[in-house]
Amino acid sequence: MSSSIVDPADPVFRLHRGGKMAVASTVxxxxxxxxxxxxxxxxxxxxxxxxxxxxxxxDYTWAAHTVAVVTDGSAVLGLxxxxxxxxxxxxxxxxxxxxxxxGVDAVPVCLDTQDVDEIVAVVRALAPSFGGxxxxxxxxxxxxEVERRLDEALDIPVxxxxxxxxxxxxxxxxxxxxxxxxxxxxxxRVAVSGAGxxxxxxxxxxxxGGVDPDQVVVCDSKGIIG
Length: 226
What we know:
Elements: H1 11-16, H2 32-38, H3 43-52, H4 57-60, E1 66-71, H5 83-102, E2 105-110, H6 116-126, E3 132-135, H7 142-153, E4 158-160, H8 161-180, E5 190-193, H9 197-208, E6 216-220, E7 223-224
Parallel strand pairs: 1-2, 1-3, 3-4, 5-6
Antiparallel strand pairs: 6-7
Helix pairs in contact: 6-7, 8-9
């Protein structure tokens, strides 16, 4: 279906045409022998080994170096609640950043539900395929419960980028600025603009990093809230 918003001549649309990702084999598949090793019958031996010792999966599947980038499309960039399909380009972008800058494979997973129970259930069911879960662009306050419940339920890392990715960068930047100015974090007065997922996490991270909690002011659209 065409759209008046889409401009095929626009370099942004040209870059995204067909998506930004592809799946590529890491093993040769050029002969009958290759196929019999990568798939049946050879693959059955690896399956049996993992069934006998699940820890073997880290060495003989992609799970240990693959992250699921999970969203419900409810708080995408500055676009808001645009839904899972419209969120997919952002999730593809995050996945290719994982690969380019960290050497980590990542798979976008856009869920057609914004129900906390359903999100948690789906991600728990998908977890055996991955070595970590990166939650992305899930609106507050639901994002806090989603992350907490998944972190409690899973034995792999669970990370909400909008909270902790942002907070880590802010703390690092403030530390560097304080060092350049020969000041201590405990002597600073800090104003946090926004009390959503990022703002709450930034506030907690700054306090954990040494900022005096009594010297932090958090503001939302209605003014100072703490």
